[in-house]
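Q: Mind making up any chain with structure tokens?
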Amino acid sequence: MSGVSAPDYPVVIAGGGLIGLSAAMFLAQQGVASLVVERLRGGSPLPRAAHFHLRTLELFRLAGIEDEVKRRSEDDFLPEGAIIAMDDLSGRKLADIIGSLNAGVDALSPCRRLFISQPSLEPTLRQRAREAGAQVLEGHVVVSASQDEDGVIAIAKDVDSGAARELRGQYLIGADGAHSTIRELLGIPLDGRGVFSNSVTIYFTADLSPQLGGKPLSVIYINNSVFGGFMRMNKDCQSGFIGVNRVGDPNTDPEAANVAKDISEKRLIEIVRAAAGVPDLPVRIDGVARWRATSDVARRFAHGRMFLAGDAAHLMPPNGGFGGNTGIHDAHNLAWKLAYVLKGLAGPELLDTYDFERRPIAKFTVEQAYTRYVTRTAPYLGATDFQPLADDFNIELGHVYGSPAIIAEQDGDVVHADPHDTRGRPGTRAPHLWLTQAGKSISTLDLFGTGFVLLAAPAGGDWCTAATAAAQRFPGLPLVAHLIGSPDLKDPGGKFAQVYGLTPEGAVLVRPDGFVAWRSKDMIEDPQRRLEQALDRLLMKH
């Protein structure tokens, strides 16, 4: 494959749904253009509602779209809300799963969890990416791809005419979903539990205000003799969706998990009525989507210059809403690393850390989604081989990365922890703390996003001087230093050192993705040299 040394695009992205558009936006945030190739014209047509977690909203905040996402969410869904289980909407409550969607979040994040439909979110992602230089090629699919040491060539085919066009890039991201062509082309197998339900999602219109009006409910799990699954309604209680994982009695019907065998309108209406507990409820079916409940992880997330993200890399049941969120986090982790390598700020070995960091997190999250599937939807499986239920905060904010892009303080295979207790440990997300800048409250998280950031405790001013000097050894490297507790960045509660696990003279170095890369709990001799050594190692240029 000669002649790829002058590619047309820095990054080609196969798939322009939630994950592909997020990747394009995050790359654009770093000043890197990309070309997104998407099969659909105009985005997702189905009103799929998705639950977006704290870390995802934090990333949206750093990308400048949090307020827009919140506004669009509030147009369609009630904020907050509980997650419960019922036999049907007119019947008994079986269990309280989460009492309130955002209980306890204020101590950990400046953001709040929310629901938003993909047709509402994707235009925001697309617009933000395009504003910063991304292009979207709609009505096309990537059907083949090849690579050498200089770049990649992808062949995209027009879904209507069949006409093919050649796309050249330096790197390619496969964000092309559960049936990923890129994963298949690379010959990367999936490992895991395989398929345990041929499920469907029913999109419908029906007046459920008598059952749900005025009730702050986000997700309702339904378990009765007709079906088992979960549902979500818009705030006007006139339209929604039901995810159906089994029909009938699984103890007597071996085909109970094969929901997709009958998706006639008559059958779908029966299920909606069974969910409502109203046998004669007027129902209009707006759409139906088949999907397979599975728990699988790709054996590798990268091969050469090609990478997998989202459902192309990991498949999990929707219980807990982890799939899309995990894919967005993949995209963010990969985007800054691609940007730094493309700009010559880091060596290509930095890209190897994408698999090191994200695949263990994916395995853990897939298993947690399976735990929720078994305990909330399919106790009839009698499964005993699932992981103990981890707290949602641990999954959303408690990632622990171990890779050469982290200078760890201790060895270990832990991939998650309680974010209340991580306290600036290298490999974990930098903790949220409210500070005051120019008379306004900002989060420590608002200081991150595109470059490396050094945060020094109140008596650690020498670290800031050292960081400014150390940056001179790395031309073009964005590195900003902040003295927390200074007149420019006040710490009203005086808690920074405690929250970040430092003495008053310590400092942390935070990566562009908001994860702590290195920490010195105290002042040391020659802090400039120590920072230069840390950056040398983290950027992998030698």
